[in-house]
């Protein structure tokens, strides 16, 4: 069941015009465009910036320890070892953004799979799965996240997996709801009548019609994953130094808060910008993909 | 006719969309309403009849979203020039209103008695206890059994017909001079409809209030109204007393409406076939050229009806019609 | 209503059982599982470990172990702290007040401010205020709370020495005012997120209600606008907010953990992190389970309150 073979017929047939209207609504959504620009700047800055920027993130420069921003060679100042803050923000950005994206993909896949099965089969199996979702949601996510992070050897991949494990439930709820209604619709019933396999109905008939809410939930999940990564890393159980992430940069900045506040200010701004950006985009997508606007 | 209580002159309502385009939904409406009289305002949904009633109460969104022009004289005072506070003293007190949906028009979290009493408290300055006593009295008046207990009930504990009676009790709380009833029976079962109409007629006889009765159901009109005003695309297209209008409708649209009503008249020698008007009410943002009804009209004359906008003319004393070919209809009838 | 509450109670018990399964699973994820404490002790041989494992019943089938664990949980025996051998439940109990104080103060504040912002945004929809409130709420939800806390400390404790940067009271003082003084900054930080969420929900609830027919009825009665707003619109819009408040508990708990860490507030979140640092697994597991149960009971309570407040449920 490869993704490439999805025929996606109901959408493909009727919807080029609707899809065009959705794209136009998205492009006209001012906040969403602000979000897109913010994310572009952060992504390009983090991944291309290091090639253009004159300072290396690991170069120790003891003459410029604690250099104040805009007051010396280092643009955004330097840390206790004289390392360039801007360069470190870029490297950390690569880690934080990558973890955010990867966790989003993982949680969306898990959430979609569980939600699809629960919504499609309903009854006992669906009920049991959704009660599991409810129970997972009873655990405040940072508590669960920290417990798991403390028990499992921390690393980029385990952190990503743990974040995904604690944030797939919303997607599952959204997908379950969609599947529950969509499976009653004509095209799904028609597919059942002609004897299509369950897998074919799920992936080829229903899933393409449930894409819009999944995309919205996934976008908001990137924002949430970045935020969660920063929380665990700040508390010392996430990405471990020397690998920098925006969250663990704040952890080490905490003790210099009085003497070198810029070490805390800029990573926090970077996190806020990234999370805000994805939230703006998610909001714009929700408005643009709202089928009620296609009346 | 006796001195009118409510007199509406050249009422116009325009809505402005968020894009900036203006939609003219009520155009040059004139009518008068005397005490004890019932005027029915008839039309399909989208014809502007509900907007007309909300404009009289100034319950439409304010400027710049909505502009109201013309004059609405209640015993000589122009309501459109009252302050908001002055207008509040009119609403529910001198002009009251009942709505189509009894299921959703009552607040679900307050007791029925309280919802009646608050109006009296506000307008008549009654204390809490006195106002509740008055509420029970009103529930009795509108024919709700065991009113003392019913005053303590919540709306969801009552049937649709009961709730509409409660709405009527709210409207009558302050002895209004004018009652606007916006499709008060549409959402109800046929038997309940008859009861509610009976109640309204009875209450009108007792209180002598004037009634503006909005409906799309001509069967109801025959039961309750003295005069009828037919509205189409924001304009009055025919206006007459009930009998002449039913006997000799001059505007093709009115005739269409009458054809769409199932006749229960058992004395009729032969029942005419039930017809319906093809097409739908025009989009008020893009009214057709000429007569607004011409695209749906079976008597349309090309080159005339789609070119000239007909004026409202008096075909007979008290019978106005807006049609370029009303004379032919008159002769045929 | 009794039927509704009964079914809700049954659901909660079922959920509690699933929560316990997840908790048991997480417990076994711990390095060395429940044996971790002993595995870390130097000079412990394999045989000794095996003996302890046998004593603790860890060599028995999992379902049996789960049953034992669950029954101990139910009778309130949540194990003992590795650090000071105190019963876990007692330790949690001694930290609960601080957390409840922080959560309570911040929730109250958030409800007042959030309701106000939400209502104003709804009645002046698409105004500058509404627009700013919308953007502000989205940014508020995006700011990492711990960072906001650090900035607050830097501004209002370091630069302007107005508020203490940590602890719940000054040793030797501990008056009401002293508590309040210490509460300001952590409360502010925790309130940021809750206000953002609360105002959004309040706004959409108000917009929902404002389009309802009964609001038009209230206006047609000639009631003054503030009566229409308060007695008719807000009274209805607040109802679903009871459920929203219940659903926000996990978010507020998570936020409290972060705020307590930044401000060394001696609550459950602080206890949780300290225990993590000491690898004090019984306490960690205890707090984890406790927070889940807390959330569950909070939601149940919210549903009960909703049922009491909404006449449509009250009498059926």
From TrEMBL, chain A:
> Highest taxon of the source?
Bacteria
Show where the ABC transmembrane type-1 domain sits: 93-282
* Localization annotation: Cell membrane
UniProt keyword annotations, A-Z: Cell membrane, Membrane, Peptide transport, Protein transport, Transmembrane, Transmembrane helix, Transport
A Gene Ontology biological process term: protein transport
Q: Which CDD domains match?
A: TM_PBP2
Q: Mention any one GO cellular component term assigned to this protein in its UniProt record.
A: plasma membrane
Q: How does it sit in the membrane?
A: Multi-pass membrane protein
PROSITE patterns per the record? ABC_TM1
**Stored Pfam families:** BPD_transp_1 (PF00528), OppC_N (PF12911)
User: Mind telling me which residue stretches traverse the membrane in this protein?
Assistant: 31-53, 95-121, 142-167, 259-282
The answer on whether this UniProt entry bears the keyword Transmembrane helix reads yes
Is Membrane tagged as a keyword?
Answer: yes
Report the family membership: Belongs to the binding-protein-dependent transport system permease family.
- What this protein is called in its record is Peptide/nickel transport system permease protein
* Native source organism of the sequence: Arboricoccus pini
TrEMBL record, chain B:
Q: Does the keyword GTP-binding apply?
A: no
Q: Where in the cell is it found?
A: Cell inner membrane
Q: Which GO terms describe its biological process?
A: peptide transport; transmembrane transport
Per UniProt, what is the membrane topology?
Peripheral membrane protein
The parts of the chain that form a coiled coil are none
Keyword Transferase in the entry? The reply is: no
- Gene Ontology terms, MF aspect: ATP binding; ATP hydrolysis activity
Record's keyword terms, sorted: ATP-binding, Cell membrane, Membrane, Nucleotide-binding, Transport
Q: What InterPro entries does the database record attribute to this sequence?
A: AAA+_ATPase (IPR003593), ABC_Ni/Peptide_Import (IPR050388), ABC_transporter-like_ATP-bd (IPR003439), ABC_transporter-like_CS (IPR017871), Oligopep_ABC_C (IPR013563), P-loop_NTPase (IPR027417)
User: Which Gene Ontology terms of cellular component type are present?
Assistant: plasma membrane
Q: Which residues form the ABC transporter domain?
A: 8-258
- Family named by the database record: Belongs to the ABC transporter superfamily.
| Entry protein name | Oligopeptide transport system ATP-binding protein
Q: Which organism is it from?
A: Arboricoccus pini
Automatic annotation (TrEMBL), chain C:
Query: Which UniProt key words apply to this protein?
Result: Cell membrane, Membrane, Transmembrane, Transmembrane helix, Transport
Compartment(s) of residence: Cell membrane
Q: Which InterPro entries match?
A: BPD_transp_1_N (IPR045621), MetI-like (IPR000515), MetI-like_sf (IPR035906)
Q: Offer a single GO CC term for the protein.
A: plasma membrane
Q: Name the Pfam families for this protein.
A: BPD_transp_1 (PF00528), BPD_transp_1_N (PF19300)
Q: Which residues form the ABC transmembrane type-1 domain?
A: 96-306
Q: Which CDD domains match?
A: TM_PBP2
For the biological process aspect of GO, one term held by this record is:
transmembrane transport
Primary localisation category: membrane
Specify the protein's topology with respect to the membrane: Multi-pass membrane protein
- Residue ranges annotated as transmembrane are 12-30, 88-119, 131-156, 176-198, 238-263, 283-309
> Can you tell which superkingdom this protein's organism belongs to?
Bacteria
User: Which family, according to UniProt?
Assistant: Belongs to the binding-protein-dependent transport system permease family.
What is the protein name for this chain?
Peptide/nickel transport system permease protein
Higher taxonomy:
Bacteria, Pseudomonadati, Pseudomonadota, Alphaproteobacteria, Geminicoccales
